[in-house]
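quick q for whoever's on today - can somebody do inverse folding on this one?? i tried earlier but teh output was garbage lol. tokens:
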């Protein structure tokens, strides 16, 4: 299974997202040709267990017939129509009603886009229009966090707190409106977690005071920071953030693109962390990524302010509220509900997998911490242990483990020293055991070879 899977197609016709063009030119892409449940098959016939479910985005697993049939049915009835100029379609109306039922009570109205990045951009525009309607034209700043990830369109890249995504394009990191993440391992490893959570939330209040509440439109954050390394705040963090936003008249946007639709063992990260945002973004688990769809949910207060302002809402995309994507989302949510997959993450496979990691991975000297909730877990290596290993890239410490796991038939990803695990919700106990055993072996080998 060495090297990338060969295909005779002209792969140099395609610039891949978040890839190294030189590596692609030299090796070509690994071409996936089939997915089935938790497994992917490449064009060389290799089988992989997808331990990160696409990009933490395929909770129901690959090639679910119920979802595929919903797409065909809708394509034969009305494959596409736009929703501009007061037009509409039935699947997106049904989907909005369904989302109102399953999202937190405060969230009442939905705007649809095709990607999480567009949902973030749309949430920002809605926040701006909301404050203008309230006569608060000065409220423009959006505060975000270090290690946050909000997408790759230009404004979303600016909100992202990972410089790697900004550097190549000269996009301003705008650190003056960013705050530190609740990253206890890095910032206050020995502090009591709940005290640290309170203290980390107060960084938001300090930043609002510094900028002036009259200039701040919103704070955006992921309930657990996914791409940035599975950074998981203590219980005290989000309720305190909610209170600070209320006190200073700042909208709270929960970016639930990754945490939504059961990944944390509750329908949404807000349910898991006991808070309600004014706006939320969602995608990924909305359709299990079978088709591109995302949404912004907003509170009744925001929806009614926009409605009563008398202003036009001059924002939208050709594919907003796409009927086939909406039909796929409805079928996907139906699978999550009928197969009780969110409950499965909460009560069965989530705790089972976590227990396996706790018994075989956590005791390894190479490992500093395992964190996360449900099936959104991260294993951070003890970086100090490898400081003297000249052969390792300190900025990409866990990469050799990801490469080794690929050879063993498991797809993982890493962020620096952190390995990310976000398997499909349908993972069996046996598959979880195999994954944990392979990972324990790969980390042990990495440790032995790095310190040799
Ligand atoms: C929290 C969060 N927000 C936004 C995005 C961007 O979504 P998309 O890649 O669909 O534009 C992502 C993608 O990983 C995400 O995890």
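ok took a stab at it. sequence:
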């Amino acid at each position: 299974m060495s090297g990338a899977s060969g295909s005779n197609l002209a792969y140099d016709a395609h610039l891949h997202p978040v890839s190294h063009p030189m590596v692609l030119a030299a090796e070509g892409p690994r071409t996936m040709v089939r997915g089935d449940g938790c497994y992917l098959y490449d064009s060389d016939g290799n089988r992989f267990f997808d331990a990160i479910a696409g990009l933490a985005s395929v909770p129901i697993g690959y090639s679910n017939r119920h979802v595929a049939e919903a797409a065909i049915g809708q394509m034969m009835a009305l494959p596409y129509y736009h929703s501009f100029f007061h037009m509409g379609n039935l699947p997106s109306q049904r989907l909005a009603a369904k989302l109102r039922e399953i999202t937190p009570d405060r969230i009442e109205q939905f705007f649809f886009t095709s990607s999480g990045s567009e949902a973030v951009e749309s949430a920002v525009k809605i926040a701006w229009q909301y404050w203008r309607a309230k006569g608060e034209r000065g409220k423009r700043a959006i505060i975000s966090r270090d290690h946050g990830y909000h997408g790759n369109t230009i404004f979303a890249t600016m909100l992202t707190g990972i410089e790697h995504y900004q550097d190549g394009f000269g996009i301003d990191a705008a650190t003056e409106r960013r705050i530190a993440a609740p990253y206890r391992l890095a910032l206050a490893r020995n502090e009591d977690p709940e005290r640290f959570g309170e203290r980390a939330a107060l960084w938001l209040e300090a930043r609002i005071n510094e900028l002036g509440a009259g200039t701040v439109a919103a704070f955006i954050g992921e309930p657990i920071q996914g791409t940035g390394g599975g950074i998981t705040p203590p219980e005290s963090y989000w309720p305190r953030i909610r209170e600070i936003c209320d006190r200073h008249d700042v909208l709270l946007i929960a970016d639930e693109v990754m945490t939504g639709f059961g990944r944390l063992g509750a329908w949404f990260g807000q349910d898991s962390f006991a808070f309600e945002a004014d706006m939320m973004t969602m995608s990924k688990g909305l359709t299990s990524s079978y088709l591109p769809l995302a949404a912004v949910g907003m509170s009744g207060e925001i929806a009614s302010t926009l409605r009563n302002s008398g202003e036009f809402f001059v924002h939208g995309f050709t594919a907003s509220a796409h009927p086939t994507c909406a039909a796929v989302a409805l079928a996907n949510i139906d699978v999550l509900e009928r197969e009780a997959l969110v409950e499965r993450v909460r009560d069965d496979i989530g705790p089972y997998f976590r227990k396996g990691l706790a018994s075989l991975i956590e005791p390894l000297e190479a490992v500093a911490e395992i964190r996360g909730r449900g099936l959104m877990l991260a294993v951070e290596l003890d970086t100090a242990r490898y400081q003297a290993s000249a052969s390792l890239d300190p900025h990409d410490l866990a990469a050799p483990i990801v490469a080794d796991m690929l050879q063993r038939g498991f797809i993982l990803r890493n962020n620096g020293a952190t390995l990310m695990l976000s398997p499909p919700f349908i993972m069996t106990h046996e598959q979880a055991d195999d994954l944990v055993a392979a990972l324990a072996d790969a980390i042990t080998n990495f440790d032995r070879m790095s310190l040799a």
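fwiw The two ends are 26 Å apart (CA to CA). also The pocket of pyridoxal-5'-phosphate is lined by residues 55, 115-117, 120, 149-151, 222, 226-227, 255, 257-258, 283 (CB under 6 Å). so keep that in mind when u check it
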